[in-house]
Amino acid sequence: MSDPKMTARSLAVHYGDKLALKEVDLDIAANQVTALIGPSGCGKSTFLRCLNRMNDTIDTCRVSGQVTLDDEPVYGPDGIDPVLLRARVGMVFQRPNPFPKSIYDNVAFGPRLHGLVAEGDEMDAVIQRSLERAGLWAEVHDRLAERGTGLSGGQQQRLCIARAIAVEPEVILMDEPCSALDPIATAKVEELIDELRDSFTIVIVTHSMQQAARVSQFTAFFHLGKIIEVGATEQIFTAPANDLTQGYITGRFG
Ligand SMILES: Nc1ncnc2c1ncn2[C@@H]1O[C@H](COP(=O)(O)OP(=O)(O)OP(=O)(O)O)[C@@H](O)[C@H]1O
Fold first, then answer.
1. Which domains does the chain carry?
2. Where would you tag: which of 19, 54, 71, 151 has the fewest CB atoms within 10 A of its CB?
3. Which residues line ligand 1 (CB under 6 A)?
4. Whole-complex ipTM
5. Cα(151)–Cα(228) distance, rounded to whole angstroms?
6. What is the pLDDT of residues 14-68, one digit of tens each?
7. Are 218 and 35 in contact (CB under 8 A)?
8. Is 225 helix (H, G, I), strand (E, B) or coil?
């Protein structure tokens, strides 16, 4: 791939003695959606968390190999500062997890943490723009002081997306972002993902083959800690090269 936004090379992850990810190589294309699929426990989330060093928070976890963001190393002595890295590579989790604060303060959290935006008109504009881009502004503009936790599940997840994009990340990692949502809320988030890729590079872990096919341009199939196959989503779903991929996408195992 020419000029990938992020790369992983020989990436391996141990939890204690257990090898969870084995020598994984992957390029993440800029302004595209890359889906990570595979059976439970195959290492998708572990891989995703390596991209913004979220695994650092797990005591037993050891990472080896290289990850880059715009050719800069993510790990090692010359690695990007982890706080800065997480501003550049944001994350949306499986369960919507708004802070027990107002809708406004949820979105303002990142810009305040990183000292990016002045309070007042400038912050108001960032809040509005982020909520608009997350497709939530129309639903919440007249109740920004209410608690984020009082929104519906789907709205909470879009609030978490607004919170992630408020710091203008370059990459957004999504770990099964729709698994706690109903079909209508899921459809909204999927539409949003498609719009967001104009501005951001997106990596999404999903258990839903339909979702991977609908939202992504590239798909990587993981099995037992390795990448078995990676390619254009259409090719992976219509003409996979590997029997294991074929077996998984046709539901023979999972
Ligand atoms: N914090 C942890 N401590 C110990 N082992 C872990 C930890 N997190 C994950 N693992 C193990 O690492 C392996 C990969 O897990 P991971 O969560 O990355 O898989 P996954 O493909 O995302 O699974 P799922 O689809 O079920 O979420 C599994 O065997 C899992 O049990």
1. 6-95+169-249 (3.40.50.300)
2. 71
3. 15, 18, 20, 38, 40-46, 58, 60
4. 0.97
5. 40
6. 999 999 999 999 999 999 999 999 999 999 999 999 999 999 999 999 999 999 9
7. yes
8. coil
